[in-house]
Amino acid sequence: MMTAPGSSRRLSTRSGRSVSLVVSASLAVLIGTATLTGQPTPNSTSDWPQWRGPNRDGVSTERGLIQQWPAAGPAKAWTATGIGSGYGSVAVVADRLFVQGLIGKNSTVTALNRADGRVIWTKTVGSTGNNDRGPGPRGTPTVDGDRLYVLTEAGELACLRVADGSPVWQRSIVKDLGGRNLFWLISESPLVDGQKLVVSPGGKGAGMAALDKMTGKTIWTSNELNDEAGYASPIAADIGGVRTYMTLTAEAGVGVRASDGKLMWRYTRVANNTANITTPVFHDSKVFYTSSYGVGGALLSLTAKDGLVAATEAYFTSDMQNHHGGVVLVDGYLYGFSNAILTCLDFATGKILWRHRSVGKGSLVYADRRLYLLSENQVMGLADASPKGYVERGRFQINDEGWPSWAHPVVSGGRLYVRNQGTLTSYDVKAR
Questions:
Q1: 200 CB contacts (<8 Å, ≥6 apart)?
Q2: How many CB atoms lie within 10 A of CB 358?
Q3: Residue 206, Cα to own-chain centre: how many angstroms?
Q4: Mean pLDDT of 415-426
Q5: Residues 383-405: pLDDT tens digits?
Q6: pTM value > 0.85
């Protein structure tokens, strides 16, 4: 059961559309030597290969970016349409971008040319889902070498070839793994960790599951974890030599052992009974969970012993109630929207450093000393990542596509990518 923010601590530990090739775009791409074999050449310094970037933490290591935007915002490099509706963000590797979308009645994934936004290929993965917050995929593709992993809003999990979108294997986490779809549809972005592909079916004895990424064969399901899935995506970390997967379910912040799926902790206080969305943040043998709807955030200290990890509450705070936009950790400080207010917290203590209305409730990523802030009400902003206070360095308006702007922005290779439903825009943010 979940507990309210003001109650006592509760912490338990336990031992359609077929593959289509747009010929003109493909020929343009094939001119480049990096894609003569159909395989993108990775560039680890600027790639954003999965949800929230290389380390799933919303942090880019890029430098040399514009520190102050002009009044109209940074220059547009290109705008792509026809990618389909949805809330998922983009993955960027070498000369390609990958994004999921609803096209017609199909849940699809599309590969685009990074240079000009032209379509290289589009692949149907399954049928769509719909609800009162709109149709279409919610997840972000994961690129791993020459393979692409996609989880649809209806629970279809597919492994495709990066080169042309051809299928390698496909399974349903609902039908095959005993999972359940969610009221606002499955929103998880799959995690690749070594040879494992990690997802959260959310069924009895299958709160999380690990599959062989090459074949799709089930390696384990977390037999002790019966929680319905949340809308969050998992992260991986080594804690005292114990490889661990962490996520936020519909009922708790949890950690399972990577080797066999054993549930090691289940912390209920940080979960609400509506929608738990935010990806956990891990640092220095500690993990931070947060949710909205009157709950808050908590830092858990993690200790490994005899092949297990124990979790204890370091602090709980009602001052970081993050709904959907994520939090980032920079130099010991957490930044994120607590409901509609951008907030800076000391990671170690939970102390508030500052609060500001900024661009309004939204999502954020970090790159080159700046926070890139996207309001769900179509305002893109730039601000200092500093515990000293909020200093804005520019903002501009994007088009209203009829739904909230919930797709997280991406900074990669000197470009800012903003996906808003069926439109993806690339902005040049490289300093000259």
A1: 173, 179, 188, 207, 208, 209, 229, 230, 234, 247, 249
A2: 22
A3: 21
A4: 97
A5: 999 999 999 999 999 999 999 99
A6: yes
User: By C-alpha distance, which of 216, 253, 256 is closest to 237?
Assistant: 256
Arithmetic mean of pLDDT, 138-161: 97
What is the arrangement of strands in the sheet containing 341-346, beginning at the earlier edge strand?
Answer: 327-330, 333-338, 341-346, 352-356
Cβ proximity of 206 and 220 under 8 Å: no
Return the DSSP state at 179.
-
Backbone angles phi, psi at 200, to 5 degrees: -125, 85
Confidence grade of residue 374 (pLDDT, cut at 50, 70, 90): very high
- In the chain, what percentage of residues exceed pLDDT 70? 89
* Encoded tokens for 399: 């088009």
pLDDT in tens, 212-248: 999 999 999 999 999 999 999 999 999 999 999 999 9
231, two tokens: 């809308």
- Domain boundaries 11-15+17-428, corresponding CATH code: 2.130.10.10
DSSP string, 10-72: -EEE---PPPEE-HHHHHHHHTSGGGTTS-----TTT-B-STTTTTTSSEE---SB-SS--TT
Contact, 67 vs 393, CB < 8 A? Answer: yes
Q: Which two tokens stand for residue 214?
A: 């090459």
**127 band by pLDDT with thresholds 50, 70 and 90:** confident
**190, 162, 19: which is closest to 96 by C-alpha?**
162
